[in-house]
């Protein structure tokens, strides 16, 4: 007897399992399938993405349905059209040997009449996105009044995307005595509420650790004066050269305006809001998916359906009117097991809203400062160095090499590096050289001292995201490697091929000496004191200081068009061996 047989699956399903090449059930399948086959209980199952949840509800559903009846007996709700199609094709594969069983997909953006026709032919299983489902119920094109099973798949995502009301309405069209099976990667409060409201004594199974849902998203706020919002946004983008983000604005007008300004200033940006035609929206979304757009400026409504997994940052250009909406925004990042950052640009008067949001998300915000010009220059410099290292050599260059060598004769390697880097870097440095501190509520001076006034030191380290670190794992790595305590490493900021972090000054000496000769997987790990003071006047540990009136930064400037910033996948240090501290600071 195979392990699948032991779960109680019938012959038709076991044949499909063999065809699909599944050898043994996954944990969630092992736990859920026997329960669902043997009882009519409601079920809440928590398991991460990719753990085989579809088959965990799909197998029992197929086995329990009456395939001789054409009545719709099972409804599966799923958050996006892509998932809807994916589940449908999985269900069709599972039911390959079940005669007469039909699974139909219902989702937006495709012909509703065609979908209605398929339903009319008889579909025992309907897989639907909430929006289209509601629509079709309203028009009498689908009947779910006799279903026995309702599956809420990716429940956390559906709620994240604001489908609560739709789900409620859909469920009100289903019979009381059906069974409801809820599957979710995480269990935020909203999912618990659904379980409580719409389910009866559900059996709960959990695979792996329970996750509060937003743990992999770091929440940060930046206090600026109202008119500095836009320059602040630009700085946040400049300080994260590989940013892939959704920028939220409150109104369609602001959305359009901010996107236009960003484009004018040379960023790969695009707008997404309700005044655009469906066609325009599709174009923008396609460009975003392909990462041709790095900053997607969007309204809350328009961003609902965004199902892109790699979003690194959510930027709240303005807070939403309803603070509850914040959860939906921040849920656009930190998906599929990745970590993400949700940044909020606020004015001082909005600080109390941050406290209210903290209560909703049950997580604390970190108070951060808008990066100073020098910090941005430093980041851009390393980014540039990585880009040079990774640039593929163009063969045609070789023809000109003798002539080029002649021109560059007599310049030694160090000087040549400095010059090459300066070609692009000077533009940034000129732009940011004379800019002011944008932070409204901070006490740090913008002068570049190594240790800031509160005794905190910022470090540069030559490992980053391309080495597989995010801010969480790098923090863990540093803590474990250095044997420091939980709170000793903070403000960890990972970039593509390098990162920054802070410690209190007391640790500086031991950290620097520890890393003078430290190798990881055969590579020297380089840690140096960063030239910028550590950004955060608030120290990431609360707010303090008096408000200072800051000058307005020029919006447009002498920055040229930026090239494909996403293209650089960064090397770690451009000389191929360890840089000396002296050389590094020489660039400024
Ligand atoms: P989830 O919904 O939990 O994110 P899926 O149901 O989409 O996960 O399954 C992820 C992938 O794993 C799919 O390609 C699916 O075909 C495959 N899969 C599911 N169960 C098994 C199994 N028991 N053995 C091997 N592969 C499986
Ligand atoms: Mg799934």
From TrEMBL:
The Helicase ATP-binding domain is annotated at 34-205
- Which residue intervals make up region (Disordered)? 529-588
Q: Which positions carry the signal peptide feature in this UniProt record?
A: none
Helicase C-terminal domain segment(s)? 216-378
A single GO CC term for this protein reads: cytosol
- Ranges for domain DEAD-box RNA helicase Q: 2-30
Which segments show compositional bias classed as Basic residues?
Answer: 541-551
Q: Which UniProt keywords apply?
A: ATP-binding, Helicase, Hydrolase, Nucleotide-binding
Q: Which Pfam families match?
A: DbpA, DEAD, Helicase_C
Q: Which InterPro entries does the UniProt entry name for this protein?
A: DbpA/CsdA_RNA-bd_dom, DEAD/DEAH_box_helicase_dom, DEAD/DEAH_RhlB, DEAD_box_RNA_helicase, Helicase_ATP-bd, Helicase_C-like, Nucleotide-bd_a/b_plait_sf, P-loop_NTPase
Q: Which Gene Ontology molecular-function terms are recorded?
A: ATP binding; hydrolase activity; nucleic acid binding; RNA helicase activity
Instruction: Please report, in chain numbering, the residue ranges of the motif Q motif.
Output: 2-30
Which PANTHER family has this protein been placed in? ATP-DEPENDENT RNA HELICASE RHLE (PTHR47959:SF13), ATP-DEPENDENT RNA HELICASE RHLE-RELATED (PTHR47959)
Q: Family assignment? A: Belongs to the DEAD box helicase family.
**Protein name in the entry:** ATP-dependent helicase
Highest classification ranks of the organism: Bacteria, Pseudomonadati, Bacteroidota, Flavobacteriia, Flavobacteriales
């Amino acid at each position: 007897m195979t392990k699948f047989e032991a779960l109680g699956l019938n012959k038709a399903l076991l044949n499909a399992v063999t065809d699909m090449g599944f050898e043994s059930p996954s944990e969630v399948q092992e736990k859920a399938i026997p329960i669902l086959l043997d009882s009519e209980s409601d079920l809440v199952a928590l398991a991460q993405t990719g753990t085989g949840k579809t088959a965990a509800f799909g197998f029992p559903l197929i086995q329990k349905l009456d395939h001789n009846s054409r009545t719709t007996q099972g409804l599966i709700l799923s958050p996006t059209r892509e998932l809807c199609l994916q589940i449908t094709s999985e269900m069709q594969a599972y039911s390959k040997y079940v005669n007469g069983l039909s699974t139909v997909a219902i989702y937006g953006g495709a012909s509703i009449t065609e979908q209605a026709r398929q339903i009319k032919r008889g579909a025992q299983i309907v897989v639907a996105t909430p929006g289209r489902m509601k629509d079709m119920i309203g028009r009498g094109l689908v009947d779910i009044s006799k279903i026995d099973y309702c599956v809420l798949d990716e429940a956390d995502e559906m709620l994240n995307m604001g489908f609560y009301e739709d789900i409620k309405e859909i469920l009100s069209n289903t019979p009381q005595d059906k069974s409801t099976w809820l599957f979710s990667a995480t269990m935020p409060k909203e999912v618990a509420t659904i379980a409580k409201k719409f389910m009866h004594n559900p059996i709960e199974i959990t695979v792996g650790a329970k996750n509060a849902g937003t743990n992999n998203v770091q929440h940060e706020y930046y206090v600026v004066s109202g008119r500095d919002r836009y320059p602040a946004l630009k700085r946040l983008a400049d300080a994260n050269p590989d940013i892939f983000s959704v920028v939220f604005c409150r109104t369609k007008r602001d959305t359009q305006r901010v996107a236009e300004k960003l484009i004018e200033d040379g960023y790969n940006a695009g707008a997404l809001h309700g005044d655009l035609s469906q066609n325009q929206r599709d174009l923008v979304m396609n460009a975003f998916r392909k990462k041709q757009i790095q900053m997607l400026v969007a309204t809350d409504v328009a961003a609902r359906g965004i199902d892109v997994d790699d979003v690194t940052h959510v930027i709240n250009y303005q807070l939403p009117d309803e603070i509850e909406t914040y959860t939906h925004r921040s849920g656009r990042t930190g998906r599929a097991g990745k970590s993400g950052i949700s940044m909020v640009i606020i004015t001082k008067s909005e600080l109390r809203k941050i406290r209210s949001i903290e209560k909703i998300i049950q997580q604390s915000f970190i108070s951060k400062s808008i990066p100073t010009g020098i910090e941005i220059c430093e980041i851009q410099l390393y980014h540039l160095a990585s880009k040079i290292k990774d640039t593929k050599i163009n063969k045609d260059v070789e023809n000109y090499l003798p002539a080029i060598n002649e021109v560059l004769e007599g310049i030694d390697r160090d000087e040549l590096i400095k010059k090459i880097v300066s070609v692009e870097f000077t533009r940034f440095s000129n732009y940011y050289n004379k800019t002011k501190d944008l932070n409204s509520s901070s006490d740090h001076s913008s002068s570049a001292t190594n240790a800031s006034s509160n005794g905190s030191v910022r470090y540069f380290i030559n490992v980053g995201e391309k080495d597989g670190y995010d801010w969480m794992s790098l923090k863990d790595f540093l803590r474990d490697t250095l044997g420091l305590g939980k709170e000793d490493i903070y403000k960890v900021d990972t970039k593509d091929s390098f990162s920054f972090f802070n410690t209190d000054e007391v640790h500086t000496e031991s950290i620097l000496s520890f890393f003078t000769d430290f190798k990881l997987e055969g590579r020297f790990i380089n840690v140096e004191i960063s030239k910028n003071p550590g950004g955060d006047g608030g120290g990431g540990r609360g707010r303090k200081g008096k408000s200072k009136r800051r000058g307005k930064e020029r919006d447009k400037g002498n920055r040229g068009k930026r090239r494909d910033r996403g293209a650089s996948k960064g090397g770690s240090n451009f000389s191929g061996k360890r840089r000396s501290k002296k050389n590094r600071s020489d660039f400024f």
